[in-house]
Design goal:
Layout: E1 12-15, E2 22-25, E3 42-50, E4 57-67, H1 72-82, H2 96-113, H3 120-135, E5 139-141, H4 143-148, E6 160-162, H5 169-184, E7 188-192, H6 212-228, E8 237-242, H7 248-267, E9 288-293, H8 295-303, E10 306-310, E11 317-322, H9 323-337, E12 341-344, H10 345-350, E13 375-383, E14 388-390, E15 396-398, H11 400-420, H12 426-435, E16 438-443, H13 445-451, H14 459-487, H15 493-513, H16 521-542, H17 557-561, E17 576-580, E18 586-590, H18 593-600, H19 605-618, H20 646-656, E19 668-670, H21 676-688, E20 693-694, E21 696-698, H22 709-715, E22 742-749, E23 752-760, E24 766-772, H23 779-796, H24 801-808, E25 817-821, E26 824-827, H25 830-842, H26 845-850, H27 856-865, H28 877-883, E27 902-904, H29 912-920, E28 937-939, E29 942-944
Helix pairs in contact: 2-3, 2-11, 3-11, 5-6, 7-9, 8-9, 9-21, 11-14, 13-18, 14-16, 14-20, 15-16, 18-19, 24-25
Cofactor: adenosylcob(III)alamin
Protein name: Vitamin B12-dependent ribonucleotide reductase
InterPro entries: RdRp_reductase_class-2 (IPR050862), RNR_2_N (IPR013678), RNR_lg_C (IPR000788), RNR_NrdJ/NrdZ (IPR013344), TSCPD_dom (IPR024434)
Amino acid sequence: MTETTSDPARGSKARGNKAGKGLRFERIHTTPGVHPYDEVVWERRDVVMTNWRDGSVNFEQRGVEFPDFWSVNAVNIVTSKYFRGALGTPQRETSLKQLIDRVVKTYRAAGEKHGYFASPADAEIFEHELAYAVLHQIFAFNSPVWFNVGTQQPQQVSACFILSVDDSMESILDWYKEEGMIFKGGSGAGLNLSRIRSSKELLSSGGNASGPVSFMRGADASAGTIKSGGATRRAAKMVVLDVDHPDIEAFIETKVKEEEKIRALRDAGFDMDLGGEDITSVQYQNANNSVRVNDAFMKAVESGAKFGLRARLTGEVIEEVDARALFRKMAEAAHACADPGIQYDDTINHWHTSPETGRITASNPCSEYMHLDNSSCNLASLNLMKFLREDEQGNQSFDVERFVKVVEMVITAMDISICFADFPTEKIAETTRAFRQLGIGYANLGALLMATGHAYDSDGGRALAGAITSLMTATSYRRSAELAAIVGPYDGYARNAEAHQRVMRQHADANTDAKRMDDLDTPVWAAATEAWQDVLRLGKKNGFRNAQASVLAPTGTIGLMMDCDTTGIEPDLALVKFKKLVGGGSMQIVNNTVPKALKRLGYQPEQIEAIVEHIAEHGNVIDAPGLKPEHYEVFDCAMGERSISPMGHVRMMAATQPFLSGAISKTVNMPATSTVEDVEEIYLQGWKLGLKALAVYVENSKVGQPLSAKKKEEKGKAKEGEAEKVVEYRPVRRRLPKGRPGITTSFTVGGAEGYMTANSYPDDGLGEVFLKMSKQGSTLAGMMDAFSIAVSVGLQYGVPLETYVSKFTNMRFEPAGMTDDPDVRMAQSIVDYIFRRLALDFLPFETRSALGIHSAEERQRHLETGSYEPAEEELDVEGLAQSAPRQVDPPKPVKAPEPQAQAPAPKEVHSSTELVEMQLGLNADAPLCFSCGTKMRRAGSCYLCEGCGSTSGCS
């Protein structure tokens, strides 16, 4: 451990002395003597997640504890994804406090053990501040941290991995095994296959080599098998091939040929939808493919020159191709099926901090992590909207000081995690511990830009994004240099010191050259400039603790955990969003950022209200009353009437790339009218603007997408010239006989009295329900009569009782509270009580148990034996209510309503993507979620399910 001391840092002080060294921390959000948990209002909620396509319950846990300001989505996703312990057992986590404590206390203990803190008091401040930041959704670690840290299983903290493979069968088989183990753990990996001999080269035995494309088939099949073996998302993998590899054309064409196969098989009647029975016969579908190009190739493309393809063993040119023609093939393939993407090798290695150890040859599946082979990266992301500050006069600013303090704290925690982390292979463990690669990033940039009145595709928007990114990375490296003084630089630093310092100078120079635009970005640039000067000074003196500090990841599941409107560097999806409500139901709501943006732009409250009403009705700002046309661009989104141009996405990436250690996970969406020439131009401009990687997606280009309902209807139509046979099926009403068995139940819910008569068919099944409350002729009595008739008619037409039970239980409205029914002690409304009682009286045990409905006797049995009857893995909150005091939520603080319009979401809509599709009459490029059937949305170069938090990538 080095004896070097370091200079004080904003928000915390690094101290070194002979007796002991460590970081000193100052409080950012917390109060001495008060735990962060004691400053928020907690409430109990029930989490029941279903697959809306078949109504099956995917997950259920009742009575979980969260702050009252957490959204339904955030609660559902954290409970189902991150809570540990078997459902229905005492070991199961039931509160966000338990989750945060499990992780944060582990970080504190490791930090104390390895000498990161100057004193126990500093360790306590670190613990409280870290807990506060997670509790208030200011930042989140990547998913593996929440899965694994503080549990009995391996302490895996990284989501991103890069592997390597050499030109030998032993190495290729190791690749299959290592990749499989990573997929099994729910993470993703990437690698470069360019060391493997091409099919145009000879083996030592005299025969021709198989070539890397051949070996890709085996790896693809393995990934597909592991995916279907119980994972909730596709295996995420990246395959890279250098542009000078002799098999490059075959690599480029792999997916294009498979898309043609899909078309042919679909036309022949096979089920080729994503997730369909016959799609597994298609190869190469489990990986993202990227071509690694160098400057020599791109210059040959510009000049129209020849380019040499080189033998893998000797390096000699064995074939010359037309560079422009090869580039055209790449663009044609990407235009047709979105693969391959492009990675710019010389740019990547120009910003490499450890070149003396080895070149950067590949990336993780989402293309944001790029470093040495056999390494991993631990990610965390900040919620940028939490740092937007507004004074009493309504003036906005970015809270630079608080942002810096939070970055310092988070990067410290991320480095501590490497001290106790486990890794899937020994080679990855050795490299990661020697270079300590970190990937701090952010989410909600799109929301921040709109809220501050900046168009995503504008100089002002790019300036603010660049400034924040520069400040984040500079602060991270400054803290890394301070940590090097306390616990030592990374093991590989001495060998790479000169290169690492050169890259720091490149970042600082880019910061100096960046364009300042307005009152929001200028103070951020100033703080970043100062931080980069500290980086250069402290780095030269102490070295650095980490070879890499920052990336821009997709922030899929953790973005939902933080209730972010936008993921990573992405713009807003649309102006109108789909929002789930506590107690069930959903609304379509105009983004909260819209009123903030209008206020920033100088509009008055009554104007804002009118514009928001227009957006709620039309889904866009075109012709909104009083809105100036020059302000339309502020509200441009990824989808909609005014969608952001492809080059707008590229320019935003270029604005942030010079200030990132790694790269950016992002796909450039292009309209269906885009041409191959447009793709070529995007790839060319990406190289000229200094990006490290780029991928495109042309709307409706992939065949293997879910069919829309309209397409499915068309598929079922008779072929042209044939008579179409129309068969119409109608339900038949099954009336009850004159004499019918029935049960009459008196009940009290929250002090309100009523009677329910439930009559059934003589053979089986409920047939009608009558409800009596209040005096005859009153409005309530009339509504109850109407409701009873509607339910009864539905039952007689064949609507299953369990459908009504699943829809109406947990519906929350007054009167609610205690009942006089021993089987249903608490009800959230009269309707909630009625359908719980009907379920107990008329549904079989297995059906209602799956819905979480049990009698008092069954709950008592569960308390005594751990089983209701057959073993049921669920948390019996209702049973606990018998012995536990009643939970009463404290009154919630009244918040000033923001001008926003909302309406019930259409019944056939289950996500924001589906809502936008309905408004615009188009199909998004996203697949359906394997877990819950909801239409996913883009998050970087991956897909994210808003319903359950599943992702198609590795974040």
